[in-house]
Design goal:
This protein is of the alpha/beta class. The protein has 17 helices and 14 strands. The longest helix has 25 residues.
Length: 526
């Protein structure tokens, strides 16, 4: 029975973030201004040699290794950076970069760098194939630049011969089961370390932010103009902390809160899923669909009871695989956060409640884009694999708060299950990759002020299933100088999205092109 891995943004703890405490020093070696954020930074990072800051990108047509369908004018190249900024004369890694020149070259404002999130997603292909194009005004005035972060996709993709732990399909309930899961996860992580080389220990987000400053310098920009989505917003905040005097126009869309640790983020993931579940049930009642219950609370109680029953008496799929409470949690977590799947979800739930263990197979095909015989391309499959391998390599360095023993994980999962019978236990066990990662975390969890940085624009949906509006509101309070633009509705990544909003795109473009920030807390309609 097809059982999809949760999307990168849904993986519990996937947006947990930390801050490596390092020096605020520009790539040229000139000291950056030292605001409050920088006072406690480690000053041991040496001056970066000129052969990094003065390198020239050899731009050529983008090959099929980047994208099979590049847009007109797309160019690709490489930028070399040190693996370890504390030892810049040591090993290096080449970053894959792409560029689409400004349409109105005579009024070009510079480069606009883009990161699509993850962590684990590469941005070079998104820019080269036009998957991300910014808003119309920004596209005309900026060279759009994508890059694959270190150790990801074209930038020296790490290797994990046995894959990485992604949370047990059926979360352990005993110490013996938990010990077995930990042993398997540890074996996988150690194989990653052996196969990936030195870069695995330096995939932390601060190193990526330092890479951004190398890119800025090599591209010839005095300031960094940047748009980051989801995890990309955390990279942007790290850059603001390290290089406040180099911040240009920065859009952080679908905001990650750097003051929340992995457990806090996982709890927020659980709450977000529960909130989406309640909205789904409310929608059923409002439409007069009483197949799952006559009231919102009745629907939620029925599904909770169904999950408890599945834990004891799983259903069987067409291929004989068990359909357990964890299986139900997976599908519910994916489907309730996508309103377009609600009708299909209801059909599947009605059938499953009637004992049909195959009920969710069609829903799985629909959610993974494989319905109607459509199969993912080799590039899409490779990108998904890259994300699954690279995500823990980044997150486990950034956040130090994952449970560290089978007993602690069991206790954490039990506490989460009390908070949310439908989602808590399954989401808690998604932290097992970082619980067993062989490289010690280097991050600390703390708010970022970015004193002295130019004002930045935060963007969020009201109902973002992956990075809730509460994140953007918290970061808006933490930063010294920011505006918050809120787009009503459900989604993730509100600017230049697949479902465009003229209001949102106009406001963001007005900032990127004209420097005009919206009001401190502006709103765009649904």
């Amino acid at each position: 029975m097809s059982k999809p891995r949760k999307s990168m943004a849904l993986t519990a703890g996937a947006l947990a973030a930390g801050m490596l405490v390092v020096t605020g020093c520009g790539v040229s070696g000139a000291a950056a201004t030292q605001p409050d954020d920088a006072k406690a930074m480690n000053t041991s990072v040496p001056v970066l040699p000129a052969h990094f800051t003065q390198q020239k990108v050899q731009w050529t047509a983008c090959g099929a290794d980047v994208t099979p369908e590049a847009v007109s004018g797309a160019q690709c190249g490489w930028v070399k950076v040190p693996v370890d900024y504390a030892a810049p004369d040591g090993e290096t890694v080449k970053l894959r970069v792409s560029r689409v020149p400004a349409k109105d070259h005579s009024r070009r404002l510079g480069s606009l760098l883009f990161n699509p999130g993850g962590p684990g997603a590469g941005g070079a292909s998104d820019v080269a194939n036009g998957n991300w194009q910014a808003g119309g005004q920004a596209r005309a005035r900026y060279d759009l630049v994508g890059f694959d972060p270190r150790g990801i996709a074209g930038s020296g993709q790490i290797k994990c011969p046995d894959g990485v732990a992604q949370g047990p399909e059926n979360p352990p309930r005993t110490e013996a089961e938990a010990g077995k899961a930990f042993a398997d996860a540890t074996r996988r992580a150690q194989a990653c370390q052996k196969a990936s080389g030195a870069v695995l220990a330096h995939m932390d987000s601060v190193s990526v932010a330092r890479d951004l400053d190398v890119l800025r310098t090599v591209l010839g920009d005095a300031k960094l103009n940047y748009t980051g989505i989801s995890y990309g917003t955390f990279i942007g905040q790290q850059y603001m902390k390290l290089f406040p005097d180099k911040v240009g126009r920065m859009v952080l869309d679908g905001v990650v809160n750097p003051a929340a640790d992995m457990r806090q983020v996982t709890r927020l993931d659980v709450k977000t899923a529960d909130d989406a579940m309640r909205r789904y049930a409310q929608d059923l009642v409002a439409r007069g669909d009483h197949r799952l219950g006559a009231t919102t609370d009745q629907i939620l109680r029925r599904l909770t009871a169904f999950a408890k029953k599945l834990a004891q008496q799983p259903l069987r799929g067409a291929d004989g695989e068990e359909f357990t409470d964890a299986t139900l949690s997976t599908y519910l977590g994916m489907a309730v956060t996508a309103e377009e799947s609600w009708k299909s979800l209801t059909r599947a739930l009605v059938a499953a409640l009637d004992g049909d263990g195959t009920a969710f197979e069609h829903l799985a095909a629909e959610m993974t884009g494989e319905s109607g015989g459509k199969k993912p391309t080799p590039q899409e499959e490779q990108a998904e694999e890259n994300v699954s391998l690279s995500m823990p390599a980044v997150l486990c360095l950034d956040s130090p708060s994952a449970p560290k023993s089978p007993k602690e994980m069991l206790d954490t999962a039990e506490a989460f299950a009390k908070q949310s019978p439908l989602f808590g236990r399954y989401y808690a066990w998604q932290m097992i990759d970082c619980a067993t990662w062989p490289i010690a975390p280097t991050g600390a969890v703390e708010p970022i002020k970015a004193s002295g940085a130019a004002p930045v624009l935060l963007v969020s949906y009201t109902d973002d299933p992956y990075t809730p509006l509460a994140n953007a509101q918290a970061v808006h309070r933490q930063l010294d100088n920011s505006s918050l633009l809120v787009r009503k509705g459900q989604g993730h990544g509100a600017y230049a999205s697949e479902n465009p909003s003229t209001c949102t795109d106009r406001a963001v473009d007005g900032y990127l092109v004209g420097g005009k920030l919206p009001d401190k807390a502006a709103n765009c309609p649904r």
